[in-house]
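I need you to check the entry underneath: sequence plus fold tokens. Let me know what the token row says about the fold.

>
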Amino acid sequence: MIIGSISENKDIEKRVSITPDIIKKYISLGFKVFIEKDYGIHLGFSNDIYIKEGCEIESRDNILKNSDIILQLNLPNEKNLQTINENKLLIGIFDAYKNKEKLVNLSNKKINIFSLELLPRITRAQSMDILSSQANLAGYKAVIESFACFTKAIPMMMTAAGTIPAAKVLVVGAGVAGLQAIATAKRMGAIVFATDVRIASKEQVESLGGKFLTVEGSENLETKAGYAKEASEDFKKKQELLLAETLKKIDIVICTALIPGKKAPLIIKEEMIKSMQPGSVIYDLAASQGGNSAYTKADEIVDISGVKVLGESNILNKLPTSASALYAKNLYNFVLNLYDKKNNKINVNLEDEIINNTIVK
């Protein structure tokens, strides 16, 4: 059996699905591994490094036609999809909500498609959880990028000439990305506040040294899968009042709130931004899904009366080597769950919650 991966469009995606360190793991299961020439060269992974680990360099058409399992990040373009034969497995992050019609059409052509953002939040799936591994890095990098745009020192600085107060950071959304943002900002000396619709996150925020902002009379808005669900209009009004007052004293805001399959909720409104101090920074991790903040434009810095609002369509392109290393391991663990070692074959067992949740039907 063959596992293959073709190069992504490097203008929009610098991560790769197969890193050199993972190849021997696939080979030990009995797979051959195919990649394109110069597949990882932009990350410092030369063709020779891949070949040394046991990988074979093949043409794009050969990979798509002959691989039993094709590993990608984004959905390949139409031409590449047409090259994939029946009874193959295509695994990646394919935005199953947005691309549902296209993915269902492919599955009707007897191509088994697995979109890993649909993984259930169960203990057995943690090693495959691409949302957590990638969001963890995104939360860290959002803090670094926002601090780079901030023109003051982050920690409190005491000198003979006077004292510079510590920067105040507000993290909106305390999921995986938000918690990493809290931890990173705290390590760098900031005073950190956080807010989330899930009351259960209060303890996690406080364990990292953050101060949790609670909306009076709030309920726990958390789905059974562990994600935040959409808040009621009453909650949104109370949250707006709390944020409006808080933001007047905040230097840096990190927005991380996302609802799977939907446009990002607008949390930081125009009038709130206009009440912030000039020199403040808002980094919006939800930029690619519309943004949590007014004025957010993906891959642009928008200046509103001295307040900088920024966010990127793919922040992980700034950490592609680390992000690829974690993603490749997530994929390997997912393939391992599909692999029937006893009979040396892939077993698409729909009674398995992990497989049943991620396959596009």
About this structure: The longest helix spans residues 130-149. The first strand starts at residue 2 and ends at 5. The radius of gyration is 22 Å.
